[in-house]
Amino acid sequence: MAINEVRIFNNSDRPSLVGVASVVVLIALSALAVTGGLVKVLVISWVAFAAMVAGAWLSVRAERTNPHRLVWGYGLASGAMVTSAAMFLVPQAMGLGGQAGSPRIGGIGIALGLVVGYASHTIGHRLTHVETSFDTTTAAIAAHALSAGLIIGLVYGSMPTLGLLLGLAIVSHKGPAGYAAARRLSRNGKSATALLLPAAGVGLTAIPAALLAVPRAPALNAVVFGFAAGIFLHVAMDFLPNCEAGSEIDEVCSLHEHSHDLLDELRTHAVGSTVVGATAVVLAWLALPA
Asked: Which of 65, 106, 137, 281 could disulfide-pair with 97, CB 3.0 to 4.6 Å?
């Protein structure tokens, strides 16, 4: 199996105080979630935390970066997210819109989520070129995690009957995201413990948001569910494995003497992993309808 010969080490032994503090806050909020009966939100929050921490740990421990592993991680996560958003959020948005007078109300929310997701991603990428005193990669991932947690909390708070499958599929990208982010931090000599903040980020906002009293207004809920669907569809599309020249996967392959042939091979893996991720969600829904 072709691999990149660049070694990835964690060159900083100084832990991130913000990262450690975020874990402490998450633990405190978890106790609040237990007393508030937010079991599903609590599970999703800690699965997101565990997935990103595991991905970061594997990245720091690895002496070499395997492009096949990256492709399959991204593909499985993006396929699961696209399918989950389409199966569980879009129908809810349209149904609530119908109750409010027109399914198009839910469609407005979906369009808004896609546009806001694109805008925030584009502006966030521009900020990575600005000289700042903090690590922009970690800040961007943390902002994404906090916003995703807010949306998850609102969705489960307004519709507590939703099953765990949706939330778990939505946060499935935390593993490959943590792997890639830790790789960048380690190459720059920075501690991967900074990723504790984005790892805990979902729970930091999801739990308080789920405790909010959401008005039982079909039009508002249709927009909320549509917005959530649009945001998560954008994130899922952004995580689709990009095997083109200049992409992150191309960077991993760049030192291989047959990098062009390897990229062609990885395109097949990209399609296969995405299909497997999507199929897994459908099969899980058939086996555990909820």
From this structure: 106
Note whether 152 and 202 are within 8 A (CB): yes
Q: What is the DSSP letter of 161?
A: T
User: How many H helices and E strands in the chain?
Assistant: 12, 0
Structure tokens at 139: 């800040």
pLDDT tens-place string over residues 30-65: 999 999 889 999 999 999 999 999 988 887 776 666
Global pTM? 0.81
**Burial bucket for residue 61 (CB in 10 Å: 0-12, 13-18, 19+):** exposed
DSSP string, 248-288: HHHHHHTTSTTHHHHHHHHHHHHHHHHHHHHHHHHHHHHHS
* Cα gap 226→212, rounded to integer Å: 19
Contacts of 115 (CB under 8 A, 6+ apart): 230
